[in-house]
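Hi, here's the filled form for the chain we discussed.

Project: internal
Contact: R.S.
Residues: 81
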Amino acid sequence: MLRLISLVEAYGLQALVAPHGRQIDGKLWEMRVTAAEGIARGFYVALRGKRLVVLHVFAKKTQKTPKRAIELAIERMQEVG
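And the returned structure, exactly as it came back:
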């Protein structure tokens, strides 16, 4: 996940194209990572001033992203502005 964040830092949000990233809802985006240990997902939002805030990261264990994970990310997105 740190490698993907470094890509965004160097090249902007357009660097996270499928399959590494996708838009979930409005300003909420998903970062996708596959490693030997399994699959992880991270929700993030881009804010003014070149700020990227990672809102929630979890290990993916089912085919579909858990609704509660998305809800938690949306709650946190509202807190950070």
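Let me know if anything looks off before we file it.
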